[in-house]
Amino acid sequence: MNPRLAAAFDLLPEYLAWHVLLSASALALGLIISLPLAVAASRSPRLRWPVLAFAGLIQTIPSLALLALFYPLLLAVSALSLSLTGHGFSALGFLPSLLALTLYSMLPILRTATTGILGVDPAVREAADGVGMTARQKLFQVELPLAMPVIMAGVRTAAVWTIGAATLSTPVGQTSLGNYIFAGLQTENWVSVLFGCAASAVLAMAADQLLGLIETGAARRDRRLMIAGAVGLLMGIVIAVLPLVSFGKPASYVVGAKNFSEQYILAELMADRLEKAGATVNRKEDLGSAVAYRALAAGELDVYVDYTGTLWTNVLNRQDNPGRQAVLDGLTTQLKKKDGVTVLGSLGFENAYAFAMKADRAKALGIVSLADLAREAPKLTLGTDIEFLSRPEWKAVDAAYGFKFKAQRSFQPTFMYRALSGGEADVISAFSSDGRIAADKLVVLTDPKGALPPYDAVILVSPKRAGDQRLMAALKPLVGSIPVAAMQAANYSVDRDTAKASPAEAARGLEK
């Protein structure tokens, strides 16, 4: 079997179990909320419009944005709960995903349930009233049974939507089949991407068919079909979720990573050292910069690698550049004071934002610095990673040089390099420790005004682990141990087109 396919199958039990648990929980909660609302909306025209309009409004919000919005909201509620009662809760992972997907599942259930109840023949209602049925009896014995086929059609739609949207829960720290897709896109592991898509599609089709049995049974008044569909659905959920019993033991440590190859490699490196020290480790990957730091400060991550320039500008809101060592020293002191976060030390290399061009293109235009780039910018297209144009670093460098690009386009980091090689971008916001700079013979433009801060890779430790001797002993030897050439080689081994290494294999290479 193909090694990548074998690796995907090894991860399937855990990823599928979490995906099924999340989707089933969100759909069940959506049903519990939506059905009473649908009944109320069918009884009151005044209530009907705002209920359906709200559910429709939720659908206009992109599901990934909805998932991301719940994290800071829950984090604030958790902090308030901790201050008032002494007990907080995890705002990362399952809870924000559950709440967002529940809202996302409600519209088709609400709409079809309301329509189904309103569509019951008025003559049937009159007959029910004529035999002396109470409002409750009429609802449960007449209206809901007659509306059930229509309601189940909405439930089937909601199930498919929810299972598909659950793949987007990965960036807020929830394990799902989306882990295959996000990591695969970044490392160009198309086997992983296709495997994740196929697994999600098969799961959605299986759920749809089992719910379809219930719908058919309701339409035909055939209890055997309804029971068969319900039992099949329940058994499928139990079997899928069963592996979580073995994964249920809490991990000793949670190691975080952002959404690019270097972060996957460094997370594997730290996790491997902790596991060799006898710890169990859970990995939370594909996190955004703001989410990762907030999760660490809140104690939901124990350790992850970040970059001094990112922390200096995004966390401390500093715009100055006092120099590499001064930035590192300032962060070490101020993050401890501000959030209790420990800067364990620099890994030994810098991964700075660096504007890069194809060497022949830069030579033809006479561009060697960002000042030269500003002169030619009106004729050029800038390609960046998804975050860069909204970051303080871009605002600082743009203010320093006054760029006026013909166009600006954002890409996933992997596709950003592809855009440069394919001509869709003339210059990109590259990363200095990326092996593709040398492999693609790119030229890095100088920054004569020092607008971009330094970006030393540093290990951050959460406040609750500041005194953890096992963690410190396992990770302290990494400080100063990785030169930039070694990190470039490790990154390129994962990012190259052929003979790709996995992040775990690349991490083992760094320890040799």
Q: Quick gist of this model?
A:
Helices cover about 65% and strands about 10% of the residues. With about 500 residues, it is an alpha/beta fold.
Task: Give an account of the 3D structure.
With 512 residues, this protein is of the alpha/beta class. The protein has helices at 3-43, 45-60, 63-85, 94-118, 122-130, 135-165, 178-187, 190-220, 223-241, 244-247, 261-276, 289-297, 308-315, 324-339, 359-365, 370-376, 392-401, 413-422, 436-439, 469-475, 484-495, 503-511; strands at 253-258, 281-287, 303-307, 342-350, 353-358, 381-385, 407-411, 427-431, 442-444, 456-461. The model has no long low-confidence stretch (mean pLDDT 90). Residues 16-215 form the ABC transmembrane type-1 domain. This is ABC transporter permease subunit. It is a multi-pass membrane protein. Its main location: membrane.
Q: What topology does this entry show?
A:
Elements: H1 3-43, H2 45-60, H3 63-85, H4 94-118, H5 122-130, H6 135-165, H7 178-187, H8 190-220, H9 223-241, H10 244-247, E1 253-258, H11 261-276, E2 281-287, H12 289-297, E3 303-307, H13 308-315, H14 324-339, E4 342-350, E5 353-358, H15 359-365, H16 370-376, E6 381-385, H17 392-401, E7 407-411, H18 413-422, E8 427-431, H19 436-439, E9 442-444, E10 456-461, H20 469-475, H21 484-495, H22 503-511
Parallel strand pairs: 1-2, 6-7, 6-8
Antiparallel strand pairs: 3-10, 4-10, 5-8, 5-9
Helix pairs in contact: 1-2, 1-4, 1-6, 1-8, 2-4, 3-4, 4-6, 5-6, 6-8, 7-8, 8-9, 11-20, 11-22, 21-22
Shape by Cα distribution:
elongated
Enumerate how many helices there are, as a single number: 22
Strand content: 5-15%
Number of strands: 10
Oligomer type: single chain
Main beta sheet strand tally, sense and closure: 5 strands, mixed
Q: Structural class from helices and strands? A: alpha/beta
Radius of gyration: 27 Å
- Please mark out the parts with pLDDT under 50 across 5 or more consecutive residues, or reply none: none
Distance N to C terminus: 28 Å
Mean pLDDT: 90
Q: Order of strands across the biggest sheet? A: 7-6-8-5-9
The percentage helix is 55-70%
